[in-house]
Amino acid sequence: MVEAVVDVAGVAVDALSLRDFAAQRLDALRVPRHIRLQDEPVRSDAGKVRRPRNLAV
Asked: How far is CA 19 from CA 3, 44, 48, 49, 56, in A?
């Protein structure tokens, strides 16, 4: 699982175009199968950005 927050003013992004972009640059096994777009990152109760659960520290 990879999570990223990218905010570019004036640029509209949809999941299909993002997947196509990745498919042009990555090996087929590395292209994400699922893409979820959110306006804001997921935050904890303390207001900190949450890490993905499977990310090694």
From this structure: 14, 28, 28, 24, 25
State residue 3's pLDDT score.
64
Residues 6+ apart with CB under 8 A from 51: 57
User: What is the 8-class DSSP label of residue 40?
Assistant: S
pLDDT for 2-30, tens place per residue?
Answer: 666 667 778 888 889 889 999 999 999 99
3-state secondary structure of 32: coil
Contact 32, 25 (CB under 8 A): no
Cβ atoms of 42 and 49 closer than 8 Å: yes
CA 43 – CA 51 distance, rounded (Å): 9
